[in-house]
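Researcher: I'd like a structural prediction for the single chain below. Treat it as a standalone chain; there are no partners to consider.
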Amino acid sequence: MRISIIGTGYLGAVHAACMAELGHEVLGVDSDAAKISLLTEGRAPFFEPGLTDILAGNLDGGRLRFSTSIAEAARFAELHFVCVGTPQLPGALAADLRGIEAVMDELTPKLTRDCLVVGKSTVPVGTAALLADRLGRLAPAGITAELAWNPEFLREGFAVRDTLQPDRLVVGTSSARADAVLRDVYAPLLELGTPYVSTDLATAELAKVAANAFLATKISFINAVADVCEAAGADVVTLAETLGHDKRIGRHFLSAGLGFGGGCLPKDIRAFVARADELGAADSVRFLTEVDEVNNARRRHAVDLARDLVGGSFAGRRVAILGAAFKPNTDDVRESPALEVAAAIRAEGALVRVHDPKAIDNARSKRPELDYCDEPEKACEGADVVLHLTEWKDYLELDPARLGSVVRATRILDGRNVLPLARWRDAGWTVRSMGRPSALSGSAGQRTAAVRLPPPCRSPSAGIVVTGAGRWGEGRRPRPSPRLLPRQPHQEPLPTSCSVTISDRLES
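Model: Treating it as a single chain, here is the predicted structure.
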């Protein structure tokens, strides 16, 4: 099938290459001539594992080409995927739809054949219905142009795999014809057993924003619990593992730390709140405002922890930042927690040096006031504290002893809770984590801690004592669990404290 991809940013470039990989003839279109020049040469304008290979292969195979002309796309294709960005409106929570509206206004009058226009951008629910009306009004006489919605569910760093091996395909249409066309487009994936959900336009729009809202909520939940863990001396990493064993919950997106960022989750949950308000359902999603606040608070908390590590003030201190991208395996620095922490620390008087394996150029463009280094060791030279803020594999493989030889003080904040704590401690480092007991970040060896137990629950009216399961000490009479015990005249008192050994093997 002849397909055009309008908008060759992160979503569009990946989708264009992958549609060609599935055997379609594909024309990618963008108004940015520099971007089109790079893509024509087989070079991706951003870092995404695997993309360059399939770009080059399909350019060479003649199935893929790029242009700056929407008129050419209108003449060429029978199916148009619209993949333009919908960023957050400046000074508002809502999504900025001007880009996608401009594409529709430019493409539709130029159509020369019956076609299907398919939106892939993330939009507020109700947008597709408005665009469908626009499409009908602007289409030339005698041309039948129909709108469908096919949201993307890509993860940066895994976008090629997520396109060619998706968890599911969601398609919102208004006719059997449109559904049949999209089934044909994705036939190779359907043959592999990929679930295909055919629904209406509004449900398809909500499928993406609801998924992102849920993932954001899960991340903020475990980060809120991390604060409780710090206050109680508990370990959020071990707690997340226990939660993850529950099949109703699962382990994914339960990694406490610095929180989420990027060009999707933050702006999508805000746009969801804004649209719900317009629909009169604001109260139902008000909790998402708290999800956003919990996420932003993680960055402030990281700054506080780092400040404590250097004695209460950043003035005149050297701080090394490992990571600038919002997550590993991408060079995307949009709403990057790492960069925001770095900028906040610099604003308090520190000399901040930043390293990232792929995102230095984008970071420098966004935060030119920071200093950048090409090697992590260079960023750490003379540092009073090191902050690990993006969980690149490169950082997990760093030699703590070697790094310890270049810093001024062996202190590190693990903002992602993934560093091997014992290895860093054994090399003499003081390690502070987010949501883990400070004892786990101290000196090696086992430690004994007194744990205060809550008093037993006594009910005078019922004459019973309710206690927890297990034995309080050796030589006690075994008791069933749980148990309701009649009060005895000479019942021995229950203990209110005991000693437990905290093991050093609590590592991520």
